[in-house]
Design goal:
alpha/beta
Length: 353
């Protein structure tokens, strides 16, 4: 039966209980969210779980009334899970999924393999190719009506940080989506900052007080306690309780996988293979991708685009956007509503959502 998607027809509150990110405010939220498991298998994923197919769990959030024909597939970054898109703190302000649903948009946020409630393979096989393969299969599930019984006509694949590298590879390789959003990423990151952040800010998940009980192998890493604030946020534009919620829901990342994503999904121009429109939003104060050492002018979308445009084909019709005063995790800053609204404007123009 694990080969069949297992849809849990539950209310929004029950869905959050199953996902482990229940928030008191969610019970009053009229958005319709459900949680389900999807099988992912095939040649690219055979080494993951020899005993059977892997399972990706995700949360589908829909607006009330008629289901839209367009869905956003949300792919979180490294050391995150799908809670990035539905933070269990003031969801009315910080939940990307719930805010999109209130505005009439459908979203499906997944736990990437190895995170959240999805299958936990060994870290070594979780390379960029396997990650892109698994997301390709989720796209096919969305189109075939195996997610909530809705055969979506259009799929927009959305990534954050490491997830954007995976999204870029999926879109470039499989060419099965209608549009792409790459957030929290540029093609020339601040490599010294990234390197120092990795050395000082990451450690084996086995030793982490939040994640250690999972029994991960030694090459699954997580952020060290207290590292998320300096790495991912601009304190002047962040509610401290958001960072607390982020720390409480953090997750792990495969070190081998993160390496291949960094090289082939970010630094090298994988994005040249994308043949559909691309929206690239970043935080203006992102020290990982917009700092002085990144050699990127993130003052505005207009100043960022000239540096990024050479990494895309004309078919991408690249549009760039910077969220003022936001750090790396731009969806969780105080003014994140501006980023979400800019995304909606682009979606309506691009895919008619």
């Amino acid at each position: 039966m694990r080969l069949l998607p297992k849809l849990f027809a539950v209310t929004s509150t029950c869905a959050l209980l199953l996902s482990g990110v229940l928030a008191p405010q969610a019970a009053a939220n009229p958005v319709n969210c459900t949680v389900l498991d999807l099988p992912v298998t095939g040649p690219g994923l055979l080494p993951l779980l020899p005993g059977g197919p892997a399972t990706v769990q995700g949360q589908l959030c829909l607006p009330s009334g008629k289901t839209p024909p367009v869905v956003q597939l949300l792919v979180h970054g490294g050391t995150y899970n799908r809670a990035y898109w539905d933070l269990p703190y003031q969801p009315e302000r910080y939940s990307y999924q719930r805010d999109m649903a209130k505005a009439g948009f459908a979203t499906f946020a997944v736990d990437r393999l190895g995170t959240g409630r999805s299958s936990k393979p060994l870290s070594l096989p979780m390379l960029l190719s396997a990650e892109a393969d698994s997301m390709h299969q989720v796209v096919q599930h969305l189109r075939a009506g195996r997610v909530g019984g809705v055969p979506f006509q259009k799929v927009v694949i959305v990534g954050h940080s490491v997830g954007s590298g995976i999204v870029a590879a999926e879109a470039a390789l499989y060419k099965d989506v209608d549009a792409v959003i790459l957030s929290g990423i540029t093609h020339l990151p601040a490599l010294p900052v990234l390197g120092l952040g990795a050395v000082l800010g990451l450690g084996p998940a086995l030793l982490d007080p939040v994640l250690g009980s999972r029994g991960s192998d030694p090459l699954w890493f997580a952020t060290r306690p207290g590292a998320r604030g300096p790495l991912f946020y601009n304190a002047a534009n962040t509610d401290p309780k958001v960072i607390e919620a982020d720390e409480a829901t953090k997750d792990q990342v495969s070190v081998p996988g993160m390496g291949t994503v960094a090289v082939f999904g970010i630094v090298l121009p994988t994005t040249l293979g994308i043949n559909v429109p691309v929206f690239q939003p970043v935080g203006q104060k992102d020290i990982l991708f917009c700092g002085l050492l990144a050699l990127r002018d993130c003052t505005s979308g207009k100043t960022l685009r000239p540096a990024e445009a050479p990494y895309y084909s004309p078919a991408a019709k690249l549009e760039t956007y910077t969220l003022p005063g936001a750090g790396h995790s731009l969806a969780l800053h105080k003014n994140a509503h501006q980023y979400r609204e800019a995304t909606r404007v682009w979606l309506r123009k691009t895919v008619g959502a």
